[in-house]
Structures are given as structure tokens and as C-alpha cells.
Design a protein that fits this description.
By secondary structure, the chain is mainly alpha-helical. It folds into three domains: 49 residues, no CATH class; 355 residues, Na+/H+ antiporter like fold (Up-down Bundle), CATH 1.20.1530; 267 residues, no CATH class. The protein is 78% helix and 0% strand. The protein has 25 helices and no strands. The longest helix is centred in the middle third of the chain and has 41 residues. It is elongated and about 95 Å long. 37% of the residues are buried.
């Protein structure tokens, strides 16, 4: 039961992190998940969790690296393979010795072999973190390929170096020849085994498909089972690197790219969807588990009176500096020595190339493999004495992990900002894709009862796609047009506030007063909600004003509810009906549009906004006004209009969900997602008026 509760806590933390990352986009999802993992340990139902490194590698790292290898751009990987292997092997070994000698020099209590073990554990970068952090910054295709390739191959060098360092620390004996042979055997043997298995798996899947034996269920289950089987056999039977065997198999498998026909396409789509969900879940669980280990590690070392806490913090900073400086020097040297693919000459180190070296440095944070290796440090050495400073070494490794993750999270966006990723035509093209997927989802939800409402909403989405296609083809700056649209929303707000003030001056208890107040309050509530969303996306520094706006919205809704309850208590029938309110809202919308159109005509005589943009927005408002005037008797269609409003709310949720899925799948960047969400909030007002 305790294990079941623990699993529920971990999964719950992953689910919560997916929501929190939407509201704090400047904090990468791995950091959010680490924090949630630490918080989970404070829950009353939490039971202490011991991280079994072997089981951890089998259950989490193996399938994640298999998926990463299968989806990586193979052509880009081949172009950068030399650089990736240089980092995965050369830099990992250099880090081992640099950290070992420096740590032993500044803290002689740590044996040299144990210091080497820490350096070996800090060699591998975290493939999961690399993938997550690549969405935070504008990495070039080459940078992303190098970092991915490094994270796929550097586990073997780190693991082998760690194992021999620990063996030397425990027994006091170390053989360089034996270590080199073991490393070569694990590295080459793992790759060879993975390539052979990959060829066999391709043949098996393609044969099953050609014979008609493949089903969606069998294909998905066999593919999910594959990385676990390869890892276990490589480690326990072949005694080679299971990680590299899994990576090599993932690189060579291509059965999902062969075959034609609707059944094959449907199977590939289902498999891709299953892997997408599994990937996000496993990624999240990895970092949540990392967060769960940190409090235990901290308590064990921080509370030890024999070791100064200030010394521990200083050691973490020193080791972090060594790791980062070694990586920067290695990457810079690699860039300086690498010849240009076209001219075959070495290029000078310009400012841009130094920045690229910094990006590659901070783009390789340490993570869960480092911590899982440190937990395998034995408690005693060969003489039976306690392993020297075991808890402190684990604490130092945890500190370095957090330092590298924090630096990657906050420095990468500064060194390689995402601003150049958001061009006008690019955002419009992505928006068209989002709208089409939204229409597809709405179409799948059509029933006999909601058919008319959904078709009307789909029509509004179709018109949005048509307008965006014109923008993609024309030299129109959507950001300038967007600013004018937002300004028009503020004009609507000011007009409605003035109408509300006039309505409150009418005699109490009259139908006209109740209708005006109710209509204006409802329209203002929707309008202010849209403006708040836009403000939240455009600026993260206006938190106080956003909170105040939300409080005012809650207060307004409570006032409306109180007025309705009072009407129920004071009379058997309400003063105004929903049909009357809907009818008056439509009339008020038409009057508001007329007011905005007049303001736009005034703006055409000024220089603040382009005449072309004013004219385009006037046409939008004219079309929306015409759609409202063509509606049947509103007083007789309140139920139909309410159904349309419900469908529209669903469509907005679908649209935002599509954007989130595209972000999670890496199809768009965070900055692009931010722009797309802002477009949803801006355009929903227009969609509302047309429906």
C-alpha cells in the first residue's frame, strides 16, 4: 500500500508540473518537477524511497534514451558525430581527472580515488534535461545535435570511469590497462550488440507487416518492451554497456518509417501517441524522484557536526566551477580546431563563436544519472571501515546538479534568446495549423443535438484561417495589427463602462435598468477576462495588477449572483428573463461595434496606426455586425445561443490544448506558444461576435 501511495504521489506531481509550467514559463519544467519532488517528501502519506540505481536505469533511462535515439535527426548526428564523441569520451575523462585532483587538493580528507569517482559521475550530461532545456533557448540545429549526441554516448564513459574509481577506493588497487580494456569492451560491445539487434528487429517488424500479422496492439506492446529487453540482456548476459546497446538500437530502427496504407499509418499514429505520453511521464518521474532524494541527502550531510556546512557549500561551488570551466575550455578548443565543412580551414574565434561555446557549456547540465551513480557508492571499504565522506560526496554531487540546472535555465535564454524564432509568417502558419487541428477536433464532437452550434463555430474558425492565409501572403505585420486589435478592445471596455455608469443612474426596480446593468456586466466580464490573459502573456512583471483584475472579476460575479438570489427571494419570477438579456446583449454588441468603427475611422486620419490596418479591422467589425443583424429573433433563440457559447468555450480549450501539445512535442518553442496563446485571447472576441 505504501508503494502504491508513493507511485500516486509521483504521478500526481508530474501532472501538477504540467499545469504549473504554463503559469511559470521562465522556469523549466525539470526544475518545477524537482521542487515538487522535494515537496512530496513533506506529505504525511509519504514513505521513504530508496533509489535503486540498477532498477532506475532499467525503468527510466533505457526507454527514454531509446526514444531519444529513435527520434534524433540521423543526418545531423552523423555530421556532428566527431564533436559529440569528443565531448562524450574526451571531456568526460578530462572532467574525471580535473575534478579528482582539484577536490583532493582543496579537501585532503577525500581520498583521490573517491574524488575521481565524483568526477566520473559528473561527466555524463542529462539527456532528458538537454531535451527540455532546448525549448528554453534558440539553439542552432548543430548545437542541438551535438548536445543530444553527447548525452546519448557519454553514459558509458562516466559509468565505467566511476566503477573503476570506486573499485580503487574500496580495494586500494587500480589497473589502467584493465580499465582501458573494460571501457573499450563496454563501449564497442554495446554499440555492436545494439546494431545487430536493431537489424534483426527491423526485419522482424517488416516481415510481420508484410504477412499481415501486425496489429496496433502487438506493435505498440513489442516496441515498448524492446528497450527493457535490450538493456537487461546487454548488462546481464553480454556484459556490455546496456545504455549504448539501447541507443544503437534506437538509431538503426526504421520499421515505423516503412510500409504504406491506412492501417500502417493508424498504427504509427497510435505508437507515436503512446510514446509521447510515456516520454512525458517518465521524464517527469525522473526529476520528481531526483527531488525526492535531495532532502534525504541534505539532512544526512548538512546535519553532520564533523563537517562544516560552509565548507560543503564552498566545495560545491569549486567543483561546479571546475566542471563548467573544463567544459567551456574543451568546447572552445573543439570549435577552434574544427575545420569548416566547405573551405576545410579553421575559422577564427569570433564573438559569435565564443557565445556558441558558452551555449554548449551551459546546455549540458548534470542530472539523474549522476545522482544514481553516487548512490551506488558502498558504505564500507575492503578493510571494513566506513567509506570516507560518502554522504558528503553525494551532497556535493546533488549541489552541482542543481547549480548546472539553474545556470542552464537562466543563462541559456540570455545567451541564445528565442526572439529570432518568432517571425510574422511563421507564427501565422503555425496558427493555421492550430486552427485546422481545432476544427478537426470539433468535427469529431458533432452530434445531432449540437450540430448547428458546432458548425457555426467551425465557420468562424474557417474565416480566421482565410484571413491568416491573406496575412501569410501579404506584407502585413501581424504584431502592429494585433496592437490595434488590443486598442480596439480597450475602446470597447471604455464604452461599456460608460454605458454601465449611465445604467446605474436609472431608477431602481425598472426593467430597463436591470437589462442594461446585466448586459454590460456580462460583456465587461468576458472582455476583461480576455484583456487579463493578454496582459499576463505580454508581461510577467504585472502580477499585482493581474491579481487585482481577477479579484475585481470575482467581485463582479459575486454581485451578479447576489442580485439574482435577491430577485429569487423578493419575487416569484425574475424581473428580466434570459431571453431578454440575450436580446439586449446582442443589441449592445452592435452599438459597441458601431462605436469602435467610428473610432477606427478617426484613427485613419492620424499617423499612429496604418490606414491599411484600420481598414482591415473595420471590415472585421462590419462583418461581425452583419452576422449579428442576420441572426433570427434573439428573444426566441436564447437556448441556441447558450449552446453556441458553450461550444465556443470548448473550442478555446481545444485550441489552447493543441498549442500545449505542440510545445510538449517540440514542434514549437515557448516563445511561439506564448504568441499563439495571445492570439487565441485576442481573436476569441471576434469569434464570439461572429458565432
Amino acid at each position: 500500500m505504501e508503494v502504491f501511495n508513493l507511485v500516486l504521489c509521483i504521478i500526481g506531481a508530474v501532472v501538477v508540473s504540467s499545469f504549473l509550467s504554463r503559469f511559470i514559463p521562465r522556469i523549466s519544467t525539470p526544475l518545477v518537477q524537482i521542487a515538487l519532488g522535494a515537496l512530496v517528501t513533506q506529505l504525511p502519506i509519504f514513505s521513504s524511497v530508496e533509489l535503486d540505481p540498477t532498477l532506475f536505469m532499467e525503468l527510466f533511462i533505457a526507454p527514454l534514451l531509446y526514444l531519444e535515439a529513435r527520434e534524433i535527426d540521423k543526418s545531423s548526428l552523423l555530421k556532428t558525430l566527431k564533436v559529440s564523441l569528443s565531448l562524450a569520451i574526451g571531456l568526460a575523462l578530462a572532467t574525471l581527472f580535473a575534478v579528482g585532483f582539484v577536490l583532493h587538493a582543496v579537501w585532503p580528507m577525500v581520498p583521490l580515488a573517491a574524488a575521481f569517482a565524483l568526477g566520473a559521475a559528473l561527466g555524463p550530461t542529462d539527456a532528458v534535461a538537454v531535451t527540455s532545456l532546448s525549448n528554453e533557448a534558440s539553439l542552432t540545429k548543430r548545437q542541438h545535435s551535438v548536445l543530444q549526441g553527447e548525452s546519448l554516448f557519454n553514459d558509458a564513459s562516466g559509468i565505467v570511469g566511476f566503477q573503476f574509481s570506486i573499485a580503487a577506493a574500496v580495494t586500494g588497487v587500480f589497473s589502467l590497462t584493465e580499465a582501458a580494456e573494460e571501457f573499450a569492451s563496454a563501449f564497442i560491445g554495446g554499440i555492436a550488440l545494439g546494431l545487430v539487434v536493431g537489424i534483426i528487429i527491423n526485419w522482424v517488424f517488416e516481415t510481420m507487416r508484410s504477412l499481415g500479422w501486425e496489429t496496433t496492439t502487438s506493435r505498440v506492446l513489442m516496441e515498448l518492451f524492446l528497450p527493457f529487453l535490450i538493456y537487461i540482456d546487454a548488462e546481464n548476459i553480454a556484459h556490455v554497456s546496456g545504455i549504448l546497446a539501447v541507443v544503437a538500437t534506437g538509431l538503426i530502427t526504421q520499421f515505423d518509417r516503412t510500409g504504406i496504407g491506412p492501417n500502417v499509418a493508424r498504427t504509427n499514429i497510435v505508437a507515436s501517441s503512446v510514446w509521447s505520453v510515456l516520454s512525458f511521464s517518465l521524464n517527469g518521474m525522473v526529476f520528481v524522484l531526483l527531488g525526492m532524494q535531495l532532502p534525504r541527502v541534505t539532512n544526512a550531510s548538512w546535519g553532520d557536526p564533523s563537517v562544516s556546512n560552509k565548507l560543503l557549500v564552498m566545495i560545491i561551488l569549486i567543483v561546479s566551477a571546475v566542471v563548467i570551466l573544463m567544459r567551456f575550455a574543451w568546447v572552445a578548443a573543439t570549435l577552434k580546431l574544427t575545420k569548416d565543412a566547405t573551405t576545410r580551414k579553421r575559422r577564427p574565434m569570433t564573438k559569435g563563436r565564443w557565445i556558441s561555446a558558452a551555449v554548449m557549456t551551459f546546455g549540458g547540465p548534470k542530472g539523474t544519472i549522476t545522482l544514481s551513480l553516487m548512490f551506488t557508492i558502498p558504505y564500507t571499504i575492503a578493510s571494513g571501515e566506513a567509506f570516507p565522506l560518502r554522504d558528503e560526496l553525494i551532497f556535493v554531487a546533488s549541489g552541482v546538479i542543481l547549480v548546472t540546472l539553474l545556470l542552464a535555465n537562466f543563462l541559456l535564454p540570455l545567451l541564445a534568446p528565442n526572439t529570432d524564432n518568432v517571425s510574422a509568417k511563421e507564427v501565422n502558419s503555425i496558427t493555421i495549423t492550430v486552427l485546422r487541428r481545432t476544427i478537426e477536433e470539433l468535427t469529431s464532437r458533432v452530434t445531432q443535438e449540437n450540430r448547428r452550434a458546432i458548425l457555426r463555430v467551425i465557420d468562424s474558425y474557417t474565416k480566421r484561417i482565410t484571413r491568416l492565409k491573406h496575412l501569410v501572403g501579404d506584407d502585413i505585420d501581424p504584431q502592429s495589427l494585433e496592437r490595434l486589435q488590443i486598442e480596439a478592445l480597450h475602446w470597447e471596455k471604455d464604452y461599456l463602462k460608460e454605458r454601465l455608469t449611465q445604467a446605474k443612474q436609472l431608477p431602481e426596480g425598472t426593467v430597463d435598468r436591470e437589462l442594461r446593468i446585466e448586459a454590460c456586466e456580462r460583456m465587461l466580464d468576458q472582455l476583461m477576462n480576455t484583456l487579463r490573459h493578454i496582459s499576463a502573456i505580454r508581461s510577467y512583471g504585472k502580477t499585482v495588477s493581474q491579481v487585482r483584475g481577477r479579484l475585481r472579476a470575482v467581485q463582479r460575479r459575486i454581485t451578479l449572483l447576489a442580485r439574482r438570489v435577491s430577485a429569487k427571494i423578493r419575487r416569484t419570477t425574475p424581473l428580466v428573463t434570459e431571453d431578454q438579456i440575450f436580446a439586449y446583449i446582442r443589441r449592445t454588441q452592435i452599438e459597441t461595434m458601431d462605436y469602435v468603427i467610428d473610432r477606427l475611422y478617426e484613427e485613419m486620419g492620424r499617423n499612429e496606426y496604418s490606414t491599411e490596418y484600420c481598414s482591415a479591422l473595420i471590415l472585421d467589425y462590419r462583418r461581425a455586425e452583419a452576422s449579428l443583424r442576420m441572426l433570427p429573433d434573439v428573444g426566441e433563440s436564447a437556448a441556441a445561443i447558450a449552446q453556441i457559447e458553450e461550444v465556443k468555450r470548448e473550442s478555446y480549450a481545444i485550441e489552447l490544448s493543441v498549442i500545449r501539445d505542440m510545445l510538449d512535442n517540440g514542434d514549437i518553442t515557448r516563445l511561439q506558444a506564448k504568441e499563439l496563446r495571445k492570439n487565441v485571447y485576442v481573436m476569441q472576441v471576434d469569434a464570439d461576435s461572429e458565432a
